[in-house]
Specification:
This protein is of the alpha/beta class and 213 residues long. It has a single domain, classed as Rossmann fold (3-Layer(aba) Sandwich). The protein is built from eight helices and seven strands; from the N terminus they run ββββααβααααβαβα. Strands 1-2-3-5-4-6-7 form a seven-stranded mixed β-sheet, sandwiched between helices. The protein is globular. The N terminus and C terminus are likely disordered.
């Protein structure tokens, strides 16, 4: 692919390469965020001809989560979500847009751990952020929309439970034709976190998330 973002794009394309992973072999396109300075990556599964994914491709817009992905934290479902998304695009085609700088829904690693500390005192994930004087969710998906545009994708099926992603992508000119549920990684340490996502933040999650065991 040799596409070039529009002059008004928030991202600048830097490099494309092929990377074998434990989930399969993907094309990876790296972008520099001209607003935040963060690096983002589009992880692309394509057919053997190397063609880009078709319009209405399955897309996961995934926020960086060091604690869940690298440290294996059980307080969120981010690690299992990333694994499941990569397996899904490997099997069915599509793209995972990995957004750096989104740790803790955009508040950063240190503040995320501060919020965890407040949760030990009984606050839920939303109230902990607010108690720190921080927004419940500080993430912006403008860069993700520009990455998708660079890939030639104006209409997508979004692998997500979060209608706010759908709203923001639409606001930035990407039509989301369907929210495809991604409910994985549920456990005893994050049931309350997921309940808050559903009941207070509008995520489309089942009413019963616990184990029947």
């Amino acid at each position: 692919m040799t596409t070039t973002p529009a002059a008004s794009s928030q991202v600048s394309f830097e490099v494309e390469t092929t990377v074998p992973t434990s989930h399969g072999t993907f094309r990876m396109r790296a972008y520099r965020d001209t607003v935040t300075g963060a690096d983002h990556v589009a992880i692309i599964a394509s057919d053997p001809t190397g063609l880009p994914p078709a319009d209405d491709a399955l897309v996961r817009v995934h926020s960086e989560c060091l604690t869940g992905e690298a440290f294996g934290s059980l307080k969120c479902e981010c690690g299992p979500q990333l694994d499941a998304a990569l397996d899904t695009i490997r099997d069915h085609g599509g793209v995972v847009v990995y957004l750096r700088g989104h740790e803790g829904r955009g508040i950063g690693l240190v503040n995320k751990l501060r919020a965890y500390r407040l949760q030990e005192d009984g606050l839920d994930t939303l109230d902990a952020n607010l108690a720190l004087g921080l927004p419940a969710d500080a993430r912006d998906y403008g860069a993700a929309a520009d990455v998708l545009r660079d890939l030639g994708l104006a209409r997508v099926r979004l692998l997500s439970n979060n209608p706010e992603k759908r709203r923001q992508l639409g606001q930035h000119g990407i039509e989301v034709t369907e929210l495809v549920p991604l409910v994985v990684g549920v456990g005893a340490f994050n049931e309350g976190y997921l309940d808050t996502k559903r009941d207070r933040m509008g995520h489309e999650l089942p009413g019963h998330l616990g184990s029947d065991d």
